[in-house]
Structures are given as structure tokens and as C-alpha cells.
Amino acid sequence: GAVVSQHPSRVICKSGTSVKIECRSLDFQATTMFWYRQFPKQSLMLMATSNEGSKATYEQGVEKDKFLINHASLTLSTLTVTSAHPEDSSFYICSARASTGETSYTFGSGTRLTVV
Amino acid sequence: DQQVKQNSPSLSVQEGRISILNCDYTNSMFDYFLWYKKYPAEGPTFLISISSIKDKNEDGRFTVFLNKSAKHLSLHIVPSQPGDSAVYFCAASAWAGSYQLTFGKGTKLSVIP
Q1: Choosing among A38, A42, A102, which should be mutated to test the B contact, i.e. which has the most B CBs within 10 A?
Q2: Is B106 on the interface with A (CB under 8 A)?
Q3: CB B105 to CB A110 under 8 A?
Q4: Residue A39 in contact with partner chain B when CB distance is under 8 A
Q5: How far apart are CA A73 and CA A93, in angstroms?
Q6: Phi, psi of A91 (to 5 degrees)
Q7: Model confidence pLDDT, tens digit, residues B57-107
Q8: Which of B105, B109, B110 to probe the A interface (max A CBs under 10 A)?
Q9: Residue B33: what are its φ and ψ, rounded to 5°?
Q10: pLDDT tens digits for A75-110?
């Protein structure tokens, strides 16, 4: 079945540095990638939606200059947390969809970011 | 290998009837299970959860049943309403405090008025 590989699974970085998280669709072409941030009580917040070759659409309240999303190919999307601060510590998950008609979403395994 | 499986990509139910969404898992380390609901253009929202020490958890119209021996859980919605039409994701984690969730691929529920 469709697999999305998300790396790294865990990362610890110093405050002020940048961290890149990758999501790769291994056996299908991901027309659309979604990036989520997980909050306490298991709630997921949609941060942005990216379509291959175009700029990401950010949700209200998400800083596009801080959370850089690149979807350069049909199999790779990256989220870069720039100038990370401790409050950015969270669990980030990507999800991919093969086409606009698909209702099947494949989630990555998530990245636990800790900013110290 | 897909550790959380939702084998039905879609389900249609008449308004007022029961909706049953199914989920199977393979990892015996999972002991906390969650259901999320997703409307188009929104992120999934948490709906209901169950710990492996229980076999049933109820919240209003939503009930989740867990069969550990079969590694199977189901979400029952009674009565179904048109506003319940959405994609439902099953997710699992190894313990309730863990952030790391493994998701199924989702089931699109359509409730027909």
C-alpha cells in the first residue's frame, strides 16, 4: 500500500537554528501534501496545504516565513522550521493524497521536535 | 506494512440509521486508540478515544468498541446525521501519553438525508 516516509522521527535543536523535516511518498505521486502540528489532547492543527510545483497555502495564524514548505516534486515535501524557539517544540505530521479525487490519505510517522 | 487499516474507503448511510466504521491494527504494542473526523479543507479533529483497558467508550451519539483479541475497533454513530458526513480516521499509539500516532487511511462517510 501507499507509504509516506517522514524524517527525522525525532530532532533536538538549539533555539535560533533551523530544522528541516522531509516527507516522501514512496510508491505513489503525492499531488497534495498536508502538514499538521499536534497539540495536547491529540488535537491536530492543519498548518498548510501544498500542491506540487506551487506555493503552499497556509492556514490563518501560521507564519509562512517561519514554517517554510516546499513541494518541489510529486514525491517530496519539506517543512523547515526557521529560527526555532522552544514554543515550536511539538509533534509535526505530514499527510499525502494522490489526487484531488482521492479520499484516501496516507500519514507520515511524525517528527518530534524539541527546541532547547 | 500498514499497522492501522481502514479497509472501507467509503460508506453511505441513511439519516437516522447507525453508521459503523471499522479499523484493524496489527501492532500488539498499541494500547490507545483514537478516532478523528475531517471535513474538507480542515485538519482532522479529535472525536473519541479508548484505552486498551476498556472495551467500550461512549460519548453522546458516538461509541467506540475495542476487541483486543481480534485487534479490531469500530466507531458507531447513532443516529447518523447529515453533518456527520466527513472522512473518519482511526489512529493508534503505544501509550496514551505518546504523541506518536499511526493513522489509518480514512473512511469517507456520507449520510444521506
Answers
A1: A42
A2: yes
A3: no
A4: no
A5: 19
A6: -110, 125
A7: 999 999 999 999 999 999 999 999 999 999 999 999 886 655 577 889 899
A8: B105
A9: -130, 145
A10: 999 999 999 999 999 989 999 887 655 557 788 888
